[in-house]
Specification:
alpha+beta, 5-stranded antiparallel sheet, two-stranded antiparallel ribbon, 8 helices, Serine hydrolase, Beta-lactam/transpept-like, Beta-lactam_cat
């Protein structure tokens, strides 16, 4: 059993931001034994790019998708979240509580409910685990960027209230889990909003370490998703994800 903890513009082609990312990240890839992928969007210009197209286990970054699915369902029913749902959502995002995630996973209808909701948000390459283990959902960095667009930029299908609620919780992640894409922020703007995911794989002992969110550098906001697997331990994974995040934002900021 795995231990689990935790439609916008097309991505730039090889000659654009994606090509620049490939060049800048080549030394990072050469120096790491782990595999990674990143997708980034500079919200002001709309410039976006992706490096790597692999599918990765989500670990706890799927909790953003779980909450998005819950909010869509509540919108469809013309209601607000219940007090219990709000309590579960808070600890799921802010503290990465697994019990709360499991409870809300059942509320949204498990794998089928998640896939249906994410499809409405424009995700095309995210698939739930056949045995219903939410942390083993498979996704791509490009799909996670699409999810971030739905939370931070797009007007529908998530309502203004739903998007604001998600962003608020992502801005209150406990300090000990504030690593990851936050490494690319420079302290300007309204603060980093993120969700991280990490877990060792039972078969190999190697770690999945992921981070998604919104960061501000030089007064410009970037949406960023970094996924990785094959890390020797959590510390190595965090170091890799943060180096990739800083590099990707620097490249996007310079375009």
């Amino acid at each position: 059993m795995e231990r689990v903890d935790d439609g916008g513009p097309a991505l730039s082609g090889p000659g654009g931001l994606s090509g620049a990312l490939a060049d800048a990240l080549a030394p990072v890839a050469a120096g790491s034994g782990a595999d990674f992928s990143v997708a980034v969007l500079e919200t002001g210009s709309g410039a976006s790019g992706v490096h790597g197209d692999g599918s990765y286990a989500t670990a706890s970054v799927v909790k953003v998708g779980i909450l998005a699915a819950l909010l869509l369902g509540a919108q469809d029913e013309g209601r607000r979240l219940t007090a219990e749902e709000r309590s579960q959502a808070t600890v799921m995002i802010e503290n990465s509580d697994n019990d709360a995630a499991t409870a809300l996973w059942h509320t949204i209808g498990g794998t089928n409910g998640l896939e249906a909701a994410l499809a409405r948000l424009g995700l095309t390459d995210t698939r739930g685990d056949e045995r219903g283990r939410w942390g083993l959902t498979r996704t791509t960095a490009a799909d996670q960027l699409t999810l971030l667009r739905a939370v931070f930029l797009d007007a529908a299908p998530l309502s203004v209230r739903s998007r604001a609620y998600l962003r608020t919780l992502m801005g209150r992640v406990t300090a000990r889990q504030s690593w990851g894409v936050s490494a690319a922020a420079d302290g300007t703007g309204s603060g980093t909003r993120l969700k991280n995911g990490w877990m060792p794989r039972d078969a190999t002992g190697l770690w999945v370490v992921n981070s998604i969110g919104a960061v501000t550098t030089g007064g410009r906001t970037h949406l960023l998703a970094v996924l990785s697997e094959g890390n020797t331990d959590l510390r190595a994974g965090v170091t890799l994800v943060e180096e990739v995040a800083r590099t990707a934002v620097a490249v996007a900021h310079a375009r």
